[in-house]
# Entry
Amino acid sequence: MEPAVLGGKLASALVAPLVKRLFATGGPGAGLVDRPVRLTRLVSFRGEQRTLGDEQVRGLAGRLVADSLASPGEPPFPRDEETAVADALAARLLALGDLEMDDVQAVRLGHRELAARLRTAAGPWDGFSADAGHFLDTATEWACLHILEFFTRRSTFVARTLVEQTRGQADLIAKVDELITRVPRPDARDTAFERRYLPYAAERHDHLTLYGVDLRDSPDRWPLEVAYLSLEATAEEDRAPLFGDHAERERTVRLPAESALAAHDRVLLRGDAGSGKTTLVQWLAVTAARDGARIPYVLPLRTLVRAGTLPAPTAFLTAVGCPLTPPEGWAERVLTAGRGLVLVDGLDEIPAAERHRTRDWLLAQIRAYPGNRWLLTSRPTAVRPDWLAAEGFWELALTPMRQPDVTTFVHRWHEAARAPEYEARLLDSLHTKRDLAGLATNPLMCGLICALHRERRGYLPTGRKELYDAALTMLLARRDRERGMEAVELGEEAQLELLQRLAYALVLSGRTEMDVATAESLVERALPSVASAAGQGDAATVLRALVLRSGLLRRPDEGTLHFVHRTFQDYLGARYAVEEGHLDVLAGHAGDTQWEDVIRMAVAHARPGERAVLLRRLLAAGTPRLTLLALACLEHATALDPAVRAEVEARAATLIPPASTRDARVLAEAGPLVLELLPGPDGLTDTEAHGVTVTASLLAERDPRGSLAVLRRFRDHSSRDVRRQLVGTWGRFETRTYATEVLDHLDRTDLFLTCRTEAQREALPVMGPWTHLTFLGAHRAAEITACVAEPGAVEELHLVNNTEVTELDGLPGLFTSLRLLLLDCHEVRDLGPLARLPLTSLVISRTADLTGLPALSSLTHLTVATRLPGSRLPAALPTEAPLRYLYLGDDAIAGTGLRGLVHWRTLQALYLATGTPLTAEDWAEIQRLPDLTILGLHSRALPDGSGAMPVLPGVEDLFLTALDGDEDLSVLASRLPGLRMVALEAAPGAVLDGDRLTALFPGAEVTLD
# Structure
């Protein structure tokens, strides 16, 4: 009860006289002659001239308490505690005599802090009920309000307050003036520097140079906002299903890549070569610099590790060559305030031995400066999936570009290059040529294709090797004299020879960046065998010309160089390895995931006999990954011994069809060639059929036409898992096409259709009615109802993670839903309108407002995973509902327990997935349920040894979840003599002893998950 409310029960007319009697009357003036008078000298019950004794104080306190109990309405606490409360209140009032402060200091504290000081001075007073304790604390605060009011009316108070304020202000002004004189304001220097740094950062990163492709008739750098393409990122999240929920534990979350840091402060972003990771880093830096809300730091790891010691925040700018000098301590102040956006790019571009050191460095910065945002980019296989999970990093993966993304990229590229006349012709080629479309899966390859298409006036090569060959011819044969730079005439073959040696050296070292001195040494050793380059100057001159002319090398600073993209490094390194006959070296590194592209390109470069040797070496390893790598290499083996090709395909047949979802994911890594080998549906088991559809789904982005052709064959399949996979992969295809060619043909039995996007909502009316619908995300109620052509057909509706639906008034008129789920719908305010629906099943989880729930009288199945109001279940749940199934999860019964559960004598199944231990009173409620046959319990709901559990002879099925494996379950069989089935589920990471647990229930069928 707040003090203002309690005032009506405390009789303010009594409090004011009490306060006046507690303190002696002060004289006029400001009290400047002596020190301010302490409260110990002001109270009237201390010293020789006492006018109020201890007993009188206790009497007045007792009268206050008695009048509060006698006032109309419900008493604020039990009457049998009246004397104890009065004594405690008197003790707190008497404690005023022990406070070493004056009245000005007391007023400065405020009534709540003064009350807290009195509680401390009076000492603890135990044994009160919760209501009595609350009354005592509130009464003390109310009295302190009157005490402070009394102080402010004393004649000396105002005068002394003004004097103290004047003295304090004068002293403060003098100190501030001295501080300003001695030390310039850091914030002013910081602000001035940031006004220079933020525009510099935005300008530095606000452009793209596409992979060294510099066309004669268009600029070599384009504005980032013109060329940037918003790509999609995905993450796999675990979600524990509710009892009876058959949803997959793993849920795919999709979002625009640039939104990653809006959802989480720490992100590990994975992406294949050329997928746009570095471009995204630039985009985040530019937008942050322009918004000014955060200070961006772009830290390419390949540059940082070269220095040996990774930089502290004070050296962030220096390490990346920023010419601006910040004020001393500026970086630390930025990060300490949580204003930083730290973008660490290219974990895969440093040697594996450096990555653990980099991890330690990164985590040290994060722990030292919490509250900032951190992004780390890497290739998918550079580190294990959970490499930073323990530190709270959210892992995302950039997805390959889809057809609409490719179309957008091509349009923007031609707009930026001022070459609109070639756009339509290229799009036609991408839509009709499968091989070409398969290459356009990331911004690197799309940009390369666009550049080649324009340079060749509409002609394009068809294969990956031919595409690279054509690109290299264009790049290496280009002349760039108009730049005014010193040029050395190096032919295409001479450049290739030097570049591939540099590339192979980098491949062997596991790096993507080398010192210029090392590169010059490699060029110097190569010059005697490259006649056309030998007479052009020394190694430094030739290397400088190679950087300027080839378009494939970049020097981020004077001391280092690297290829403009890892893909060119792998391609050229493979070319040199084949020329030098290093097949053993290639095969020896096949187990290293960073060599996968090198080996694939080596097969493309090799002669037929060399291909056969290399592929047999891959098969000899006998591992699934290398078998699939050999299978992927077949795409590049134009000419190959038929026996070797047959052997590869035969070995791959042991992996196809995949026997599990995990096998399907591994299989999909081999690429679109797998689509031609996928069988079915005839002759496949349901598990195999599911594995095939998972594989095809994963390859949708790389070959949507081939993937769709495979999935279309399974649209009449009866397996629920197969049908769910076909529904779940909707978002990877063109929405309406997939809806009409696959979804509309599916058997809808026990199948949910999930709508995530506006396009998916708009595609609903073109299909026949769906009886089970899920709307995931922020869909408005009007949008949901508008997209359902036949509302009467909807039997089950799920609204998940919806922040737009606030009122449910519209649902009864448009749906005849029998089952409804509301999960993470925090804005829903009233469940009452659902009473007009013939609801039989309702699931509510993490939906805060349960208003109207008691009115839902038709429910037979109810799941609640949010805290119930009140102290008894009948006050929170529908008492008129004939409940047969009740699930209570999370902290649902934290306040109610199971008090009143017996009201629902119709209950047949009860699941308690809460962490609240059951008391003897709770078990008594369960024991009184006459029809209960199914019981589900969370391990934490069981008291030690289950000693409080009564005998429940009617329970036939028992579900125990979140078991650690060391629980004592020995008494359960005797308490549940009618058991026929026991299902035991382990907690994450726990291992259950199946033999021991099965022996505990000799008369029941025991299953372990």
Observations:
- The chain is about 45% helix and 10% strand.
- The chain has a mean pLDDT of 80.
- The radius of gyration is 38 Å.
- The longest strand covers residues 232-238.
